[in-house]
């Protein structure tokens, strides 16, 4: 369908648009028009991605100065989904006669894009990177060339990658035609034309209209500069699935150093020293050349690392890059000795048996007192190590990974002061007696990593299905949104049923509160909820616990009281573990069990792999149970430090942040089962605290609207009775009939939904006209966020 938002023509690849999609696009356009940022919460399964792409692509093509969209998502499957959606949209636009040249592509790691017959078979990303580097590093190519020039063709034993060579030799003529390329399309094109898809994609970024990649390409300073420096200020940036974006920001600037890492680093230092001595004897000119380059400043060095993102510097301010490297680390052997001293210092620091918490300045002061190492050379450590690795022509970087981390730590700790803290924990748990020290360098302030993005790009869109409570994001991320909006879900049948179960059938209150969580009555009542829902839920039932520790203790208690055996009579049970491979197998088997018809139970944890990015649509999730409120482990020193920082610097109280964080993760978990309007599911919030207004108010608007008085403060048997009724209604087929009554509830077929939850072209035009009149009435002044969806109906 085609409709207009003001004078902007939108081609939307479906016959109908949801009212919330229309409102979403309209508000986004407002932010783009005003060159401002926005924060938009769109219910799960309401076509957020397609609305976003339809609007922005139309906007880009209408206003040629906004040529680029940078779309960031979290996982590779999400990137693939967005690319597929973009492809569908562009196909539709072409079918409608819009024949504009357009390039859309995705960028991800070598592991997902490599087409080399041997290298692409490797399973681990790090191995693919290392092997690729050993085929493409400049010195490897140089060696190959020398061998070719000197020896006869038969004796050339330095291997190269044909795909990379062809691309390099093609220079600027290596391009891809207009179109949208999924990761698979890109590989296909690479194979056919003998171009490496990974490097080709990177090369094409400046020419692409839409680039889809993971958050890290913009937020992680270690790689952000390498891929994002070409992006113009007028680019539109989108962070999708952004409910956790503040944590991604803080994690991208945090580093943990452990004792084994330091031991490995010390070994790497010795290996480096041997290499330096070797090179000094065989070709000292190379070291001398490096020395001269370093005197010139880092800008020169920078040019050499275009393809080496792993060697990229954590972050160095622009002015530093023009300075020359401090004299005491210019010579290779001096630098390695410097590194050795620093590693030894860290080892000694780790020998303490009490927790140490200090800021960067205190740490640097101590380093100076003990080792005479200054702050300035420390700042250059990471870059200097990268340069040395290149000079020594080391391609297999796996051995140096730990040393690189230590070097990144040195650079970060000497570059950042405010918003960072060093915490040295000698024991893994407070009860342990054998030390296992970890030195955490933690970023407490999410604004630091994202500030360059807000400063550089005029429109940044932060969106997700679960952003509530939204008020905290502007403070947490340090930006002023032009538009903040949360959209309800227009439904003609209530396809999800939130239930606040506060007590068991025996009327004992249930909660995952620390004081009561292990009471036998609570454990038994939680078990009863699982058992009762296992009996009535068709197909899949997903359960979430606040932590692995709690899940383990409660599952073992259920086992002891025979609860698991009871559940097994109705459904198979699968459990998520911290091991990613094990969890993937459990998930696969869970899906098989759901496909077989009997269904299964999946026990998992909030904030785990399953709660983020795994969808349980249709038969894979007909009910989800949240056992307790997923609060973070509040005794963690890292969390305490962040809470203190937020309280002192952002005026966010500890409790407010903890509840905000728990509720956004809770909403994320329950949202997994509803992936579209044709889907349906029961959402059980099993904790008496969920019934409180302060908790409910923090649920997303679309979800909170489903919570009625009848679904508050329920006991297990009441919840089961409501669920049975709900499932009976949902099990009825919805045809295209105008309207009907099923099980006492009014439902609508497609024609019944038109005008309510579906709008056709004419209805959109009417709404737009009504909006215009309203705008004129209010003298053309429309406050941001004042026109909600309710006003349109
Ligand atoms: S250059 Fe490309 S195709 Fe060749 S090994 Fe590296 S990633 Fe694979």
UniProtKB/TrEMBL annotation:
It is found in: Nucleus. Keywords: 4Fe-4S, ATP-binding, DNA damage, DNA repair, DNA-binding, Helicase, Hydrolase, Iron, Iron-sulfur, Isomerase, Metal-binding, Nucleotide-binding, Nucleus. Residues 7-296 form the Helicase ATP-binding domain. It is an enzyme of class 5 (isomerase). Its cofactor is [4Fe-4S] cluster. One of its GO terms (cellular component) is nucleotide-excision repair factor 3 complex. One of its GO terms (molecular function) is 4 iron, 4 sulfur cluster binding. Its EC number is 5.6.2.3. It catalyses: ATP + H2O = ADP + phosphate + H(+). Signal peptide: none annotated. One of its GO terms (biological process) is nucleotide-excision repair. CDD domains: SF2_C_XPD (cd18788). Its main location: nucleus. Belongs to the helicase family. RAD3/XPD subfamily. This is DNA 5'-3' helicase. It comes from Caulochytrium protostelioides.
